[in-house]
Write a structure and sequence with these properties.
Structural class: mainly beta
Distance between the termini: 57 Å
CATH topology: Methylamine Dehydrogenase, Chain H
CATH class: Mainly Beta
Shape: globular
CATH architecture: 7 Propeller
CATH superfamily: YVTN repeat-like/Quinoprotein amine dehydrogenase
Radius of gyration: 23 Å
Oligomer: single chain
Strand content: 35-45%
Strand order of the largest sheet: 1-4-5-6-7
């Protein structure tokens, strides 16, 4: 009996996945939580669509042509740039803690942070705007716009900064400009309808949209309404947030119905409209979800809950449509598109001809690298640093791939990560799980 009992225990432990090299699988469930999954509502409605899961090996002779890494020193848009596209950033890559602040707020800090010179800008769910100096290691300002009647309301602040001014829209219906050097409100407007998109600033205009899919242009100097453009409204609200991207000539607006608009920035007239929603029914069955609009050169990239679209920015013509979907912000470097699909495939694609250069199962790559049983990690985001692909996991591990899709290293950040990381002055800057600012070189 003892022998049989011992064998049963041995079999049990052999069938359990114990990664003796790292705890990378820890806190990584087989499926994403409903709260964190961007496409959760869609999956409830339709589960018949087969996810892309093709393994495509890169041609041995293929060589990527990358620009030199960018030494970046500012991050004033939550998605980094007006186009929402990231660059190949320079990073020291030592993984040492250079700096850790004191706790910056007792309330939950929002995921997106900004940085200008040595100033870190962050917000929390109570509506506080926190201005923190890295050099002085102290909070310079903690400003709250809201009166007592909004005390119990959870605030969702959309922010963007320009020089020393922070522009804010919220889920209550306020739009205001705050000068953090002077510590004063320059102007404030009560729009009454909650705002529901990121903000973009260009020349004399602020551009945003409300929860009814109305695109609005405001005067940057005083907050006055310049023009409103009505677009399709959905009867059922979902977790998808309207998204804006722009260049010098046009702003691109993707609404919750699935329509992409190109609007001339100067005269605020519509250039073209492209509907990406396969259903014409404005109801629960037509719920549309998509990732951020990413723009570079003449290519617009949008990944929805079903497909990824590559669109000509001048004409609105659909160049390519691919049967994979991503809930993470895609990246365009040169004429290459990099993304990670909802089922964790790392894909590199040539935007010139629409061909996939390679496609690899991230979880399989990790299990092979660690020589352990395959499980599912939870990916927070990914970036390209020093010509390498860094995949940030929600449990604070980093999986470093080379551009050809092979893992070079897996390691853990010294301190747990909460906010989305930003990349300035060759370092990683983020808010940890204890609401402290952390700098990693």
């Amino acid at each position: 009996m003892k022998l049989i009992y011992g064998l049963l225990i041995l079999i049990f432990f052999q069938n359990c996945s114990f990664d003796t090299k790292t705890n990378i699988w820890k806190n990584s469930n087989n499926t994403a939580s409903k709260k964190e999954n961007l496409f959760k509502d869609f999956k409830d409605l339709s589960t018949s669509d087969k996810l892309f899961n093709e393994n495509i090996i890169i041609n041995e002779d293929f060589k990527f042509k990358f620009p030199l890494p960018t030494f970046n020193n500012t991050w004033q848009d939550i998605f980094y740039s007006e186009s929402n596209n990231l660059k190949n950033f320079k990073y020291d890559g030592l993984n040492n803690v250079l700096f850790k602040s004191k706790k910056l707020s007792k309330f939950k800090i929002n995921n997106y942070i900004l940085f200008n010179k040595d100033i870190l800008i962050l917000t929390d769910e109570k509506g506080n705007i926190i201005i923190f100096s890295i050099n002085q290691n102290k909070v310079l300002k903690k400003f709250n716009f809201y009166k007592k009647k909004y005390k119990k309301v959870k605030k969702l602040l959309n922010i963007i900064s320009e020089n020393n001014i922070i522009y804010v829209s919220d889920n209550i219906g306020y739009l205001y400009a705050y000068d953090y050097l002077e510590d004063k409100i320059l102007w404030a407007q009560y729009y009454k309808i909650p705002f529901r998109s990121n903000l973009k600033v260009t020349k004399h205009k602020i551009i945003t949209s409300d929860q009814n899919n109305k695109l609005i242009f405001f005067d940057k100097e005083n907050g006055n309404n310049l023009k409103e453009i009505l677009t399709e409204e959905t009867l059922i609200k979902n977790s998808f947030i309207n998204n804006l991207s722009l260049n010098n000539e046009a702003v691109y607006f993707l609404n919750t119905y699935g329509s992409l608009y190109s609007i001339n920035i100067k005269n605020m007239d519509i250039n073209w409209i492209l509907n990406l929603n396969p259903s014409l029914d404005i109801s629960a069955s037509s719920l549309f979800f998509a990732n951020k609009i990413v723009f570079k050169d003449n290519n617009i990239v949008i990944s929805s809950n079903k497909s990824t679209y590559i669109i000509d920015s001048k004409t609105g013509v659909l160049n390519y449509i691919k049967n994979f979907s991503s809930s993470l912000q895609p990246i365009i470097i040169s004429n290459y598109l990099f993304l990670i699909t909802v089922n964790d495939f790392l894909i590199a694609m040539n935007l010139t001809n629409g061909k996939i250069i390679y496609s690899y199962d991230v979880n399989k790559k990790i299990s092979d690298f660690l020589d352990t049983k395959k499980q599912k990690v939870q990916i927070k985001n990914f970036v390209i640093l020093n010509n390498e692909i860094y995949v940030f996991l929600k449990n604070s591990y980093i999986v470093k791939f080379n551009t050809r899709g092979d893992i070079e290293k897996i390691y853990k950040l010294p301190l747990g990560i909460h906010s989305y990381p930003i990349f300035v002055n060759g370092i990683i800057l983020y808010i940890d799980k204890k609401n402290k600012a952390v700098l990693i070189n």
